[in-house]
Amino acid sequence: MDVQTVNANVSRVPFFRFLNFEVRSLDSLHAEAEMTFDDRHIGNPIMEYYHGGIIASFMEATAAIAVQPDFADVPAKPINLTVDYLRPGVKGPLFARANVTRKGKRMASVSVLSWQTDREKAVAEGLYHFLLV
Amino acid sequence: MSDITQKKMEQIAQMWNARGKGLITHMALEIEEVSTEGVRVRMPFNPDFCVDAKQSLLHGGILTALLDSVFGLANFVAIEGVSTMATLDLRVDYLRPARSRADVIVQAYCFRKTRHIAFNSGSVWFAGHEDAEIARGTASFALTRGETSLFDAMTKGKTS
């Protein structure tokens, strides 16, 4: 699955267009994406920080792509998630890297890290489960 | 049930309107009920939040965003003198596929508040289908208390 094909799939999902991100790299167990900041992503209008829900959504989208980059109709079905918010997401690009920690026949576990200028300074860390059947 | 003051209700309405931009504005949230027992908010259907081409299946992420937002409101209602609030962690279970073009209802409350932390819980369903919960969430928030209240910060000099 090449990145170009995946981004073509991404652009067909209305909510993914709302988030406005692009997949940057991909292999069988990982996906990395970059989201462009937009006013509609703001949670704290005074500080212009990203809304926590937008960060969690972007991480969920990246995780779903890592699990099923070749989704035909809709992205992989999410079961649940847990997110730790470590630092505020400030105005500017946001990155996410999803690692598939386990992919079975029915279920997948994915851990996701998101950051801005420095990969060592995570904005959020999340654990996502998907149903594959 | 409604032991909330008129002043607080007016503050909430002002604060909501003062936002002017950002996700909460984009979600077009309407407050249905506010009390110290919790808050109930309605989000009108928006095709931008769907994952399918037919635009009738909501992405889980928007439900997570909705819970996060309404937890914040529940804390503002339940706790006096908060100066800032940040989500510490959030867990969401997606209980059913969110397939409908109906409005979404969120009910959330603060079930424990301490000096530094607030704990929240909430449920999401489609309007008219309260018996079929589509998501449930729990979160904790870090609070700071100080001279400048969250309300003052949100409404000061905001006209747009």
From TrEMBL, chain A:
Superkingdom to which the source organism belongs: Bacteria
GO molecular function terms noted in the UniProt entry: acyl-CoA hydrolase activity
One matching Pfam family: 4HBT_3
UniProt-listed Gene3D superfamilies: Hotdog Thioesterase
Stretches assigned to the Acyl-CoA thioesterase-like N-terminal HotDog domain: 50-124
NCBIfam families: unchar_dom_1
Protein name according to UniProt: Thioesterase
Source organism per UniProt: Pseudooceanicola atlanticus
